[in-house]
Amino acid sequence: MNKLQLARTTTDSETLDELSKNANYLVRWDVALNSNTSPETLDYLSKDEVHYVRCNVAENSNTSPETLKQMAIDKENDYIKSYIKNNPNCSEETRRYLLAVKVVEDIMCNVEGKI
Fold this sequence. Notes:
By secondary structure, the protein is mainly alpha-helical. It has one domain. It has 8 helices and no strands.
């Protein structure tokens, strides 16, 4: 079984942790989607350089509230923010933060458009 298939199908969290460090972003992408990936591995992947990997972390229901909060603070784009706020582990505090940021961004866009 190749590493991509293993990342999709394994239920072993140690194997997923090892695969999360793979150079191929597609392997890391599948690790981030795997429902057996541990919160610690997802926290590691939340800092991945590849946008799509971070998006899958934000969507994974094993991602901890703390990791989701940090991702929200880290200036993620709107696409990832929507996954963060829809994740069942997203705290009400993080949802309020994302809403406040959106309101401020909308105000700034309106102000800049009038200058």
